[in-house]
Amino acid sequence: VNGLLAALHCDAVRGGTSAALVAIFSSQGEALLSPLKAVSKKRPSGAARADALAYLCVLSEASAICPALDKACAAEKIWTTTLKSKDSFVWDCEEGAPSERELLLSARLLLGIIGRPSVHLS
After folding, report:
1. 60 Cβ neighbours under 8 A, 6+ residues apart
2. What pLDDT digit, counting tens, does each position of 4-48 carry?
3. Tens digit of pLDDT for each residue in 82-97?
4. Dihedrals φ, ψ of 108, to 5°?
5. Helix/strand/coil (H, E, C) string of 1-51?
6. Is the overall model pTM greater than 0.90, yes or no?
């Protein structure tokens, strides 16, 4: 997932959308959604929470450039189940300080939500 985040960042910095990146997200949508389906059954903690945040960041940014992935996220109700629930792991703070990775991923996810609130919060 870290490689996908890096590829999305490079794409954003270049200011364009890579057709190859869109093709990857179109073909790998189910593989990207499945880790978050598991999260809806069992709340992640520690490193698993950071990984789940990373997948949400990838889905948020990739769905902005890949309509097929955007539709898959909507069909699976990813945003409803992960962002709106009062019991969502996204908004839950564990005891102790979060890792630097968790903080960076949370900030990146929030930027994605702010950039497309109609998609994430509708």
Report:
1. 109, 112, 113, 116, 120
2. 899 998 888 888 788 989 999 999 888 889 888 887 777 788 888
3. 887 666 777 776 666 7
4. -65, -40
5. CHHHHHHHHHHHHHCCCCHHHHHHHHHCHHHHHHHHHHHCCCCCCCHHHHH
6. no
